[in-house]
Every structure is written in structure tokens, then in C-alpha cells.
Amino acid sequence: MRNILLCLSFLTPFLLCSQINISGKIIDQSTNNPLPFATIKTNHSDYALSDSTGEFSIHCQELPLKITVSYIGYITKNLTIASADIDKIEFYLTPKTEKLDPIEIDSDGNIASKIIRKAIRKRPLNNPKSKLNSYSYKTYNKFKITGKNKGKLESKDTADVDIEHIFNETHSFLSEKISEYQYLKNKGEKETILATRMTGFEEPVYNVLGIKIQSNTLYEEDYTILDNKYAGPLSKRAIKNYYFKILDTTKGKRPAYVILFQPRRSKRVASLEGVLYLDMETLAIQKAIAEVRGELNIMATHNYHYYEEQNLWFPSNQEVSIQSGKGRQKVALFGGRISIGRLGNTKKTSKENNGFLISKTDYFDITLNPPIQLSAKRAAIEIHPEASNRPDTYWEQYRTSEITEKDENSFPVIADIVKKQNIEHKIRVIQNFNLGYYPLSIINFDLTYPIKYNNYEGLRLGIGMLSNEKLSKRFRIEGYLTYGFRDNAFKYGVGTGILLNKDARTWLNFNYTDDLSEVGSFLYLTDRRVYSLFEPRLVNIDFYYKHQTWSSSLQYQILPKLLSEAQISLGDIYQTGGYRYVKNNIAHSSYKLAESTIAIRWSPFSEFLKTPDGYREVQEGFPKITAQYTQAYKGVLNSDFQYAKFGIKAEYTINRLNESSTSFLLEGNLASGDVPLTHLYHAYPNAPTKETIMQRFSVAGRSSFETMYFSEFFSNKLASLQIRHTLKPFKITSWLKPELSFINRYAIGDVDNIEDHQGIEFKSLKHGYQESGIEINKLFAGFGLSFSYRYGAYHLPNFGDNIAFKFTFYLKL
């Protein structure tokens, strides 16, 4: 138990220690007005900025403490604090007698707004990505999460180490990274990670490398901090999102306006506040400071260097720091529930807990407009094969930030703890769990098989497995075995795969399956990689067919953004009910099908990280387009029918800065030829055929028609559209943030030669199907409620038959 608590403490460090908190306010002595974004530093290298009201808070470990307060245009003030018995300090700063270059400033801020509008229009001339044809540079990044404790512990035994020792003499997490960036207009930017190391881990944790800690520019529409997006202060929407005011001007060879920006709609849009230093001549950014205050207090800085030949300000360094705020928000780095730091207080009134995250990046070897060639097949981020094996001499050659004694202590101490507490395995478990597997030694257990339920098999228990890289990196075996307690039958599948090309992740697979499939279902081969912990619709399915299928497939990553799979199969089909397909006056209840299928999945606006294990999507972009074509061959290996099937779907999601979102799912299906009902299409109905609303109460699906009854409609031509609009979560408590979604679903289709399908009654969708509903999600442990109503051409006479009332289940691990 002690080991478990230690591991959890390491991964989610609440730093319950004694600290001194100094708070105060910065004030203009001549006007008594607060001074926003003044810089506060201590002699212990701690620093902070005053907020928009001049308020600040800074932590220290010991007294006496020397504080330095500086502000452009004012005399710097120093103060030594010897006692902790001070509630709040007021710093009155005196304007400098030597005036800066004067400019006219309107009291209502119109001049500042005009300057910003002009700066926005001149973005193409100031943004390196639009002004330059190419550039390249290297960066050194140091990223750490740490805590500052007062006490120290004598014990050095890492097998029984106290968490206090970890944070006194080491960081809870520290990583270093050296990268090379190359940019070519119309081809985008590529990052090559030349060197990387992380405390405690021999191999890098790729989830961390894919996180966008901080945007490298403020010229884009959105600004990103730890994958959270904020409105850019120079975006096209900047005037709507921000209020601007000129604070000052600077002197020197390249004088600048110092412009304050504050959110106009902070409750509606994720906004920043801070200051921009804009070159008076070009209106380019010379320096920027941005802040977010809330559950976490975030401060980001950007500094630029002027290149006279190109008349361009190019980044020179940047930094982001995150400290505890009003809440208890986690900073999750490894995926799932394993987080490396919880930067927040356990109590709102606590002043003792101070988690601290800082990421600093220095730019060097900058070359503007060099000759560069970038391949279209590249990933956005690639890892050099020797990145995790660089010697100390390599790091010393490129390191721009000093490695302190505390930094060095982090690696061996935490490495020992990671090993003894088996933390790498725990991270591996979480990451594989999100893909549907649980790793154990040389195999991964497939989580889609252990327990299921449906209306045909009843309770379905099973076990599945897939070998992992510990057995072989070039060969895999897989299999599963299940048993249905209502139909009293075993089902199973076995398969093997051979890796033909490591870079393209090309696998040649061979499989045999003896199982059930739902009548009318259409599954895309490339969606095998899309795992859902729980697909509630499966509970209600009662119309299946049996099949015994031999198949061989070739998986090939054509491009990072283009995944493909081709398959040939031969299957024997048997009915579980009384269905018969009549063709040429012959009724077929069983038949043989020989098919070939090709499928692609295209994610044109997603960003991918290339690792030794393949490609990982690190930034999701839309639309995502999936297409699949299947051809059946009559007479080939005694196959009974010939037909062609085509399906295409497009997914698009708009994620807004106000935390609302709208998603669209558009799908079209077409089948021609001699197609039995088993291989036609349905619109994924999810209403059990029961008399009352409460008898139909179950769990809503992800993208199913909740009021459409099972086996009510089948089509060989089908089109559907689903629209979901989700409002900003309602924050009731720190753990209860329900989401309200409005949903509309439409489907239209038709079926040819309906008389050929005997033994079952169904209708076509030629008049168009419509349903609308609402969902209140994440009420408790991922569960919520949904209500849907069916209307239009297929509205039923009994009002209650048009209603679906169900649970929802959305759990993000």
C-alpha cells in the first residue's frame, strides 16, 4: 500500500509544504492608478507579473527576501522583507523624469485599436511564415515540473524514499530536447528531434514529445498553451475579443509601442491578457507577455531579434510558466489519468501548495531563406534514430541553459524510483488501454472481448490477445475465443501478421474467423484502429448472420495523413433466422462470398509524430475522410453472387474558443448487383422493439438513430447526416461539469427489388427519416441522459413510439 501511495504521489505531486506567500499591488504614485503587468523579481530568481488590476502574488522559501519591482517609464523600486507578518504590500512607483518619445493617446483607446488594426493588416509582412520563402533554426528546450519545499530528509534510500526528498533535491519531472526546424512555404514546418531525454525513462515517452507546450508565434488566429487554445491578440478577431490601450513607448534604435490587451468577453471566449511591444515602423512584435489567471496561473513570454537585411523580427527565445491558481487542474503528460503534476491547491485557502511548471526554449543557428527541400510524405515531427542516445558532449555543444545540481539529481533519483515502482509499465498500460489492449509480458489482452451482451447471444464472455514487440517486432499473432450463453455456441478467430516495411508500418495479415456479424452493418477496415471502451448499441442487436471467413489483408501507411488497407476474403454465410435471398427463383439461406476490399482514411489537417513504433496523431484536424470499395465475384471459388459496394464518410468538428463545439458526420453508401440483405446497409438503429418508453430504456450509441427500431429499414442506397452542437460545460463544482448537446439526424435511402428478400418485413427510407434530441452528458462517472424524438414522414401514430429516453456514456481516459 505504501508503494502505491508513493507512486501516486510521484505522478500527482501535491506539495504540502510550508511556504511564505507575498502578495501586493503596484500603483502609480502620481495618479494612484494600478500598473498592470509590472515585473516582480526576488533575489531567489522567482518572478511574477502584476495582473490587470496591479495585483500580484509571489512565493518564497525563506526570509529576508529582496523584491525588485520594475515598470517601463518608472523608477525601479527595491524592498527587503524581513518578516512574514505582512498581509499585503503596496508598491508606489514614481514616473521617470526623463520622458520617453511622446505620442498622442485617446482616453477611450481608439489610437491603440487603430494601431492593432494596422498591425493585423501587416501580419503578412511581419509573420516569418508568410514573408519568408524558407527558414531553419535549432532550439534547446528545458521543460520541468517541480515543487519548492522547505524541509529536507536525511534518507537517500530510493526503495523507501519519502516524497519530500524528491521535491527538495530533484524535480518531479525534467526533460531536455534539441530540435531542428525547417520551413518551406506551401509545404509547412517540420521538426526533427535531434536529442531528447527525460527523468526516469531510458526511452522517451512519445506522448510528451507530441504535446504543443507553447505556440512559437502570436501571429496565428489561435495561441496554444499545453494544447489549450486561446484567442490570438493579433488574430482577425482580435478587436472583437480584446480591449487595447497604449501603456507606453520605448526608445532606442527600434522604438516600440507598449500596448496592453485585455479580454472583452472573458466569460465567453478563452482569452489572454498581457502586453505587446510593437515596432513603431513595421508594427511587428518585438516582445510579448501573455497571462491567463484561473484554475492555473499561466504566464508566457516571447522575445524577438531584429534582422536588418530582411527587415524582420524573428523569435529568439520564449518561455511559459504555470503555477497553482484557484482550482486543482492536472497537467497530464502521459495520456489517460497518469499525470506528472497537479498544479493546484487541495483547498482554495491553502497557501502552502505550489506546483510549478516551466518550459523555456532558446533559438539558435537561425538561417533565413536557405535552400530547403521538404517531402510531402513527411510527418510534422520526426525523431532522429539516435535522439535518446546522445552523449554528454553532444548536449554540451547545443545546450543554451545551464544544468543545475538539482537538474542533474533528477535523473538518477527518479530513474531508480521509476524502476522500483514499475512506472513505465503503468504508463504503457494506460497508453495501450486507450487503444483497447492491456499489456502483459509478451502479449496484449484485447479488451473488446471479455464481456458483452446482446439480444441473440445473451451474455457473451471471451478472451482475446495480440502479441507485442516483446515477442517480436516483425511478427505478431492474435486470436480470440468467446461463448454465448443464450445460443450456447463458441465463436473464435485466429490470425498472424508479418511486418514488411517498418517506416510505412506495412503489415501482411492472415486471419480465420468463425463468428457472428450484424445484418446490414458496414464496417470500414481502417476503423479497426478506432477503439471505443464501450459501444452501448451492441446490447440491443438481435439480428445476426453466421460466417466462417478466411481473409488476407495488407495494411500500408501511404503517407502520415493517409492510411490504407486492402483485403481479400472468402466466407460461408449462414442465417440465424428465417431470412432467404431469392435469386433466379432459388431461395438462398446460406451462400458463399468471395470479396476484395480497399479502404483509405485521410486526415489532411492532422499533425503526426513519427516514432520508431509508427505514426501518432498529435494534433487532430478536420475533416477526416474515410472511403471503402468492395467487389464480390460470382463463380470465383464457388462464390454465389456478384455485386459492388461503396461507402464514404466525412467527419468534421468545429471546436470554438468558448469551449462549445459543433460536429458533422456525413455518410453515403451505394450497393449494386445481387446483394443479399446480410450485406445491405442500415442507418445504425438503436431502438429495441418494446411496447413502452421505459421498456426501451437502454444506453444511447455514439452515432446511431435512437428512435429507429432494429430491422425497421434496410437500403442499398443510403445517405445520412448527423449534426451535434455541444455547449460550453456547465461548471457546478470542480468535479461536476455536465455538457448539454443538441442533436439532429437525417437519413434517406431506398432498396431495389425488395421482393427478393423473404422471411423478414422491412421498409425503405425513400421519404427521409428525421429525429432530434438532447443529451446531458457527464453527470456522473461518464454517464448522462438523452432524449430523442422522431418526426417527419416516418412519424408513428402512437406518440410514445416516437420517443427514446436513454442513458449516455462518454468516458475519456
UniProtKB/TrEMBL annotation:
The keyword Signal applies. Pfam families: CarbopepD_reg_2, DUF5686. It comes from the Bacteria. InterPro entries: CarboxyPept-like_regulatory, DUF5686. Residues 1-18 form the signal peptide. Keywords: Signal. This is DUF5686 family protein.
